[in-house]
């Protein structure tokens, strides 16, 4: 019985010691090196802090060092909190306020960032070539104290109050999900992965831990490759990549670029997608070039350990057809509930709620938000059973397949990221010359639309918010209005704004 994700590394380091595990633009690392370097970091952490089962922040980039840091933290008996090293300093400080980390890990490239945010916190530069002897005795003692219900990581997402929410995921959550992924989709040691998702985004959990479990090889794609589809597809072909576990937005980018007309990644045989709705038109473009590949559509918020439903696409779809998100993953169940917390009948839209081992432990240091969405199963009055209310609406057809319909609130999925529109509004509202602002989402065009009242310019808005929120949250379209519309309750009339700036524009 596995109780720690490091057991994947233990096994692969023995079985494939000299095989490349992960590779980036500058270096590659074998499974045995990964084990040794991670234990080195773990030893350094143990020498720095006596704490166990506490958060340790990692400034992450698209590199092998970030992964070494993750596993090093786990070897120390603690859990990691990945932070984008390109994130605005003010947002980083908000995360720090939440987690109060025991330690901050960074490499040489992030030294300047650490110096800015280090006040009150210890730091440790990631340096595994430093002659420090691995202390296996203390590492093993720490690992024995960690249970499968203890955290592996905390990933922060956009928060509706302007403060990011830290989702706590345990070892058991990741083990269950990874084992299911491998068995259901059919990964093995012959697979070559191409990692697209950044390591502060939970989609990357699939790449990382599937690779670790089966002894595959994972290439970390560069930013340049992700910006230029022709370079990306050529790289996939040159490196004999077999498996893509990608955000749907990246999949769409390649499809819309028409690069597949000139270059085809002919070794790819598994394409696993998630993060937003999969469009049949883009699926068909890929299928026409890779007719024998397995295509899988996944759905799930971070709070249920990456995904909770899947659909192995086994039929042809016309460009206009809706693709289902499928059925529940193993050891998870999806409940569709109405406003009275009753199960809805087949064909009726209800809120997607999830139970099972994937359900997170809640939000770090935020019991109030946790209690709102991690609730007692209303269908079970006999014993304590927590389910997660996603805020997403879905419907089940006569075959038992679930279809995603919409969001209940202002939370969206854009470019593969979960975003609270309210956080964007608060960033813009912090400009003194702004009277009011509303952010909307044009799902048809996958665009964030900002409408504001005030004497400022679009350029000034962007210049201001780049200090507060990540670039992927920036509005794609900005409108300045003379007077913001309000409803009878004195609130901004978002229905009217949607009619004027989204529905009218899409006619």
Can you put this structure into words, describing what you see?
Among the domains are: about 1-170, 3-Layer(aba) Sandwich (Rossmann fold); about 330-395, Luciferase, domain 3; about 410-505, GMP Synthetase, Chain A, domain 3 (2-Layer Sandwich), CATH 3.30.300.30. By secondary structure, the protein is of the alpha/beta class. The chain is about 30% helix and about 25% strand. It contains 16 helices and 26 strands. Helix 1 packs across helix 8 and helix 11 (about 250-255) packs across helix 12 (about 280-290). The longest helix is centred in the N-terminal third of the chain and has 18 residues, at about 30-50.
CATH architecture of the domain at 1-170: 3-Layer(aba) Sandwich
The name of the CATH superfamily of the domain at 1-170 reads ANL, N-terminal domain
Number of strands: 26
| Rg computed from alpha carbons, rounded to a whole number of angstroms | 23 Å
The shape, in one word, is globular
Helix content, binned percent: 25-40%
- In terms of DSSP E residues, the strand content is 25-35%
Distance between the termini: 57 Å
Structural class: alpha/beta
Q: Figure out the total of helices.
A: 16
What low-confidence regions span 5 or more consecutive residues with pLDDT below 50? none
Q: What is the name of the CATH class of the domain at 1-170?
A: Alpha Beta
Strand order of the largest sheet: 11-12-13-14-15
Task: Indicate the mean pLDDT.
Answer: 93
Largest sheet, in brief, is: 5 strands, mixed
Task: Quote the CATH topology of the domain at 1-170.
Answer: Rossmann fold
């Amino acid at each position: 019985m596995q109780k720690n994700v490091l057991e994947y590394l233990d096994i692969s380091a023995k079985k494939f010691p000299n095989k490349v595990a992960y590779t980036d633009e500058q270096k590659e690392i074998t499974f045995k090196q990964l084990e040794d370097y991670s234990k080195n970091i773990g030893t350094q952490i143990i020498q720095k802090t006596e704490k166990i089962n506490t958060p340790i922040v990692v400034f992450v980039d698209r590199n092998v060092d970030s992964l070494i840091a993750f596993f090093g933290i786990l070897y120390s008996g603690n859990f990691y909190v990945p932070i984008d090293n390109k994130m605005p300093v003010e947002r980083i400080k908000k995360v720090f306020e939440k987690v109060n980390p025991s330690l901050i890990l960074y490499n040489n490239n992030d030294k300047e960032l650490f110096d800015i945010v280090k006040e009150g916190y210890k730091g440790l530069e990631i340096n595994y070539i430093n002659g420090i002897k691995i202390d296996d005795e203390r590492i093993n003692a720490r690992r024995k104290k960690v249970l499968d219900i203890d955290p592996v990581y905390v990933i922060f997402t956009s928060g509706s109050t302007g403060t990011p929410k830290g989702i706590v995921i345990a070892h058991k959550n990741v083990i269950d999900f990874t084992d299911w992924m491998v068995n259901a989709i059919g990964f093995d040691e012959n697979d070559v992965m191409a990692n697209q998702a950044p390591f502060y985004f939970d989609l990357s959990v699939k790449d990382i831990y599937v690779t670790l479990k089966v002894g595959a090889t994972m290439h970390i794609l560069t930013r340049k490759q992700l910006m230029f589809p022709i370079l990306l597809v050529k790289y996939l072909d040159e490196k004999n990549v077999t498996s893509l576990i990608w955000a749907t937005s990246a999949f769409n980018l390649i499809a819309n670029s028409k690069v597949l007309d000139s270059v085809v990644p002919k070794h790819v045989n598994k394409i696993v997608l998630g993060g937003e709705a999969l469009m049949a038109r883009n699926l068909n473009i890929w299928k026409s070039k890779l007719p024998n590949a397995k295509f899988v559509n996944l759905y799930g918020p971070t709070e249920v350990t990456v995904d909770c439903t899947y659909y192995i696409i086994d039929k042809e779809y016309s460009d206009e057809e809706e693709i289902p998100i499928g059925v529940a993953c193993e050891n998870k169940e999806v409940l569709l509930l109405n406003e009275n917390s009753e199960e809805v009948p087949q064909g009726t839209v209800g809120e997607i709620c999830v139970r099972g081992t994937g359900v997170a432990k809640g939000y770090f240091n935020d019991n109030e938000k946790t209690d709102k969405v991690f609730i007692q199963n209303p269908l079970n009055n006999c014993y304590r059973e927590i389910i997660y209310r996603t805020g997403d609406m879905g419907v089940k057809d006569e075959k038992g397949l679930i279809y995603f319909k919409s969001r209940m609130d202002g939370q969206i999925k854009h470019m593969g990221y979960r975003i609270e529109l309210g956080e964007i509004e608060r960033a813009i509202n912090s400009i003194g010359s702004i009277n009011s602002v509303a952010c909307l989402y044009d799902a048809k065009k996958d665009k964030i639309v900002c409408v504001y009242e005030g004497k400022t310019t679009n350029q000034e808005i962007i210049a201001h918010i780049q200090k507060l929120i990540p670039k992927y949250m920036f509005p794609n379209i900005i409108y300045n209005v003379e007077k913001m519309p309000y409803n009878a309750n004195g609130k901004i009339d978002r229905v009217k704004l949607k009619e004027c700036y989204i529905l009218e524009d899409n006619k």
